[in-house]
UniProtKB/TrEMBL annotation:
Protein name: Glucose-6-phosphate 1-dehydrogenase
One of the record's GO cellular component terms: cytosol
Domain Glucose-6-phosphate dehydrogenase NAD-binding: 9-190
Biological source species: Zancudomyces culisetae (Gut fungus)
Cited SUPFAM superfamilies: Glyceraldehyde-3-phosphate dehydrogenase-like, C-terminal domain (SSF55347), NAD(P)-binding Rossmann-fold domains (SSF51735)
HAMAP family: G6PD
Alphabetized GO MF terms: glucose-6-phosphate dehydrogenase activity; NADP binding
Pfam families membership: G6PD_C, G6PD_N
Catalytic activity: D-glucose 6-phosphate + NADP(+) = 6-phospho-D-glucono-1,5-lactone + NADPH + H(+)
Length: 483
């Protein structure tokens, strides 16, 4: 089978993202024989590392390096240099050409093209400079060029547009892969199959049957040394505007014309267009304080956080989708750090039966657990087994670790890099989706910043601020099951 000659250049190779995610994902693909046969990987960063130190660093987060780790190392090399220096990039270009020549010889000239992947594991403040330097000194019209970048893409609608405009001077939209790692998670990738490959879900997926939808992200950890970054952004920009909105758009979109990436992204952008901006009236904001026993520090105790900061570490807000499918169905998105549990899930509550035969029915709920322990379960009313006619709320339960015991769930980044190698944009964020998502949150974010809205305190390890427990009922139309 003919394959591309592929060079993957990881910028920021000595940094956190690269060592925690990019290199372990590349190794996972290598182990599963999913990297193209002719692949070379160049790590690039400012730190002057020797080969040994570099390899040590990238192996730090590879959980169980197998016998093939030495062969993987063979593919990798390290170069140090500046991000803005044309010279450094020109020299790297010479090396890339050399590697492409070697791969061409090894393939006996039997290849179907050359691909260069520029993977920016860098802070967004460097994106424009690096993208420009790549375009002028590393890019070639004779090869396929893919630029991979990861959020944050700006901090509001305008700044995101400015950043997008600057990058688009150098790279065309079809060359850009905007990563949202939630789109690489197996259960998120499963949402399309669940919705569009099952008659019975497809049939009830609308306002006639669905009462409300909750998309929840809970983390037990606080800022953990990332206070400086986090304090500039807050939980809405960090998690809700991107990860949760991506999940929401797949849950709520219309049926795409085909499985083509552009048809899918057209539908995702279209449903976001139907969502009016989030409002403060339907939002609850919180910030965590030290745990009850004092063992866990509060957000403001983090020395990298601004004194007296009002940045929310918890937010829940109700969104409305003004289209025929969803009019009147509240979508509650909720995210928080330092909570009592770590879990990301979608909960879809169905309406009461119109003409119930049984009294006191509980509502059906479809729960899709994205992490940890992927699962889909449907809360279903049954007759309690035994010599009784009592009803009980039980579950039709598809817990992956019970059903798919021998299939390990791949890392999100491995799945996404595989898509970049295959030039598949389905699981990457298109510019218009990004813009729509910022449109929804920018007025609320500006109001929070300009009016310095004080978030409600909640204890580290609790469920969130006061008001959290009845928010769903008051603003989300949720009815607690009582059976
Ligand atoms: C990142 C956020 O994008 O996603 C972090 O910046 C958050 O604050 C992380 O912890 C969550 O990702 P995951 O894959 O652990 O759910």
């Amino acid at each position: 089978k003919k394959q591309n000659l592929t060079t993957i250049i990881v910028f920021g190779a000595s940094g956190d993202l690269a060592k925690r995610k990019t290199f372990p994902a590349l190794y996972e693909l290598f182990t599963k024989k999913l990297l193209p046969k002719h692949t070379r990987i160049i790590g690039y960063a400012r730190s002057p590392l020797n080969r040994e130190d570099f390899l040590k660093r990238i192996k730090q987060y590879i959980k169980s390096p197998g016998d093939d780790i030495a062969a993987f190392e063979e593919l990798c090399e390290y170069r140090s240099g500046e991000y803005g220096k044309p010279d450094d990039f020109q020299q790297m270009h010479a090396r890339v050409r050399e590697l492409e020549g070697e791969m061409d010889t090894a393939s006996g000239g039997k290849n179907c093209g050359v691909m260069r992947i520029y993977y920016l594991a860098l802070p967004p403040t460097t994106f424009v400079e690096v993208a420009g330097n790549i375009k002028e000194n590393l890019y070639s019209n004779d090869v396929t060029n893919h630029l991979v970048i990861e959020k944050p893409f700006g901090s509001d609608r305008d700044s995101s547009k400015v950043l997008g405009g600057q990058i688009s001077k150098y790279f065309r939209e079809e060359e850009i892969f905007r990563t949202d790692h939630y789109l690489g998670k197996d259960m998120v990738k499963n949402l399309m199959a669940l919705r569009f490959a099952n008659t019975f879900y497809d049939a009830v997926w609308n306002k006639e049957y669905i009462s409300n939808v909750q998309i929840t992200f809970k983390e037990k950890i606080g800022t953990q040394g990332r206070g400086g970054y986090f304090d500039e952004f807050g939980i809405i920009r960090d998690v809700i505007q991107n990860h949760l909105m991506q999940v929401l758009s797949i849950i709520a979109m219309e049926t795409p014309k085909s499985l083509d990436a552009e048809d899918i992204r057209d539908c995702k952008a279209a449903v976001l267009k139907c969502i009016p901006p989030a409002t403060l009236d339907e939002t609850l904001l919180g910030q965590y304080t030290a745990s009850e026993d004092g063992s866990e520090p509060g957000y403001l105790d983090d020395e990298t956080v601004r004194k007296g900061s009002n940045t929310p570490t918890f937010a829940m807000t109700t969104l409305h989708i003004d289209n025929d499918r969803w009019r009147g169905v509240p979508f509650v998105v909720k995210a928080g750090k330092a909570l009592e549990d770590a879990r990301v899930s979608v909960r879809i509550q169905f309406k009461d039966m119109k003409y119930p035969l049984f009294p006191n029915m509980a509502r059906n709920e479809l729960v899709i657990r994205i992490s940890p322990a992927e699962a889909i379960y449907m809360k279903t009313v049954v007759k309690e087994p035994g010599l009784t006619n009592n009803l009980a709320l039980s579950e039709l339960d598809l817990t992956y670790q019970d059903r798919y015991t021998h299939i390990p769930i791949p890392d999100a980044y491995a799945s996404l890099i595989l898509d970049v190698l295959g030039t598949d944009h389905s699981n990457f964020v298109r510019a218009d989706e990004l813009d729509e998502s910022w449109r929804i949150f920018t007025p609320l974010l500006h109001q929070i910043d300009n009016e310095n809205i004080t978030p409600l305190p909640y204890r580290f390890g609790s469920r969130g601020p006061e008001g959290e427990s009845n928010f769903l009922e008051v603003f989300g139309g949720y009815v607690k099951p009582v059976l």
